[in-house]
Amino acid sequence: MFRSKTSPPEFKRDLVDLENYVTKSMVVECKVDACIDKFLVRLRDLKLLTADRYFFKLPSAEGEAGKTLQGLASELRNDLERLVPGYVDANTNILEAEKVKQRLSPRWKVIRNRTRKSKPRSNADPPKSFLDRVLATLLALQDQQRLSAANDPSAGARTLTRGAFTETCQQLKEAIESETSAASFACGGTIPMAETTDSADSADPASQPTSSGVRVWIAGNDSTARRLTLPVAGETADSSANALQELVATCQPASFGRGGEDVIDPEYRQAGKLDPEDFLTSFHPADHGIIELIEQVLLPGISSDTENRLQFRKLKAELYKLNVYSGPSGHFRKHVDTPRSEHQVGSLVVCLPSRFQGGNLIVRHHGQETNFDWSPQSGASIQWAAFYSDCEHEIATITAGDRITLTYNLYVREMTAAPITPIHPDIEPQTFPLYGLIESLLATPGFMKEGGVLGVFCSHAYPHASDLAELQLPRALKGADLVVYAVLKSLGVEVSILPVLEFGGSYGSRNPQLGITGRVKDSGSRYVSSHFLGSSLEHEFLQEGGEPQLGYSDVHLRNYGNIYDIDQHWKEILLTREVSELDEAFDYGEKYNLAKKPNSFYEPGGVRLGPYLRKYFTTDRGQEEGLDEVSTDEWPAYYLPGITWITEPKHEEMAFSQVVYGNQAEVGTRYSCAAILAVIPPFSSRGQPFQEK
Ligand SMILES: O=C(O)CCC(=O)C(=O)O
Ligand SMILES: [Fe+2]
Questions:
Q1: Whose CA is nearest to atom 4 of ligand 1?
Q2: Of the residues 158, 169, 228, 343, which has the fewest C-beta atoms closer than 10 A?
Q3: Distance from residue 357's CA to the centre of ligand 1 (Å)
Q4: ipTM for the assembly
């Protein structure tokens, strides 16, 4: 269709009309579907339904089964008559009515998932009841919206105006972001070498820790080992330039991970390595208090009763490699270390005393940068740096000398022992600016007066697509994520970390007011919008004032509530039903400044929220089906609109892949992002002041 670029389109309707239209049509459809669901589940429970994924059949009208069928049919008629008066003609056989017949098979496709036994879950099962809270809160909000649509537009007068609410969310976003940039992501230190051993200071345990030379034993081909003492003093055979060169010569070229493979590419990394089984060293980071220091900076505990266990987090350093980067061209370009397990939170690099030039280690996190320049002191000190695993880092070119490092993986582990004094100071949530802000928001009656759900994507990357992640995650939280989590918890707000599934390239977590699109930056061509032509909602409804048929999909109904309770069930369908083209229509309307409902429920879009963290898997199911359809079945998630998203998704991880074998094997993959979700209770039940739960 040709449209002039210069003249703006004319509109017969605005976004208030759109939302009312969608709600009104969907309410009727959802009520009908709830009645049908109940009918089908009754049949199934009586084992009268013949159905699988592709095939569907009602029992015959003969005999006992026929009688039962008639009974259920008249129940269906009564239900329909009560919820949607006049929907079916009083004189027809309800099972012959086209309107009803047409709904049976599609509804079965949706609810058959409820018949599936869900996988047995781990003992600690908080996300399940947490999700119940999320659903209950969103259902209440939706109810409220629907009623205020029908009646009094001033019903929400005591809630913040849209502008004020947006401003509040903006403040929250900024507070979280500044927490992100303020939080330390790297730390480091220097251990000077003791000049001589006769210094009186070295006997004084309170003095600065010094080191008197580091010894390295390198395994030979036979059962011998050569010894090297650093820094090279040149006086003895094991501390000479020659001995150092022997070490350099013994190293193999160091590889790095690219696309799941170990590759050697001197353009990217030019370095030598020894594996831990090929050497021993007298150096241990714990001897110098390095581990405690890193714990203090990168692993603060949380001071809250319920999170007590988090206070007993400790770091364990596991020796990973010895590396040598030699001048004039040793280097390692930008990369992120591959976590060796879901317990890994960071990396430690210890630079042994050996002269070199250049070779700065530069660590970055969210636009911030820490530059470790070790060359000036390289001959006289042990220098070290630790950083979170997801921080990008690089080693600048070593122009001369040999830069010898020990690298360690840092794992978080829980102290299972009975309470011991915490080894490091806890986070005091009250000391963070975010605490004051959220505390005052909760005390503001108009802020989420009817309750609500806040969504904040994690700012650090975690291996969250893992079975263990659920047990690990609150404990392994880093930096700003830990602050957000701890602050909310300490204010008595229910918080959980759950995965959000990408769908068609988007996470659906929009918040147009804050400019939040729900898309991961730099995710390349996966995120090409397929939406080129205007949709029927934009043209037929908004511009032309017509009443187009609404397309929708029901993502998943979890085993929530009771399917026999149709008065509740239709609301659940309404909540979890995704109406097609709605996001686009809202964007379009926004572009032309069409009026909107003050607290639109549909505008923020919906996300596919996973009920728990689960591990990555591959499926070869669905040779005939697309990835979307398979997603719905294989990765249980609930489509939920109405969450107030404060930040953009940042670190995605592969959630699952579908492998299709054919003439040509194909792999489709869905990604997920971990998010911190918080259920804000309605003002009336927030209580004052807040108590830690
Ligand atoms: O040697 C360094 O400074 C860092 C080494 C590094 O990034 C690595 O081994 O992955
Ligand atoms: Fe690295």
A1: 349
A2: 158
A3: 16
A4: 0.99
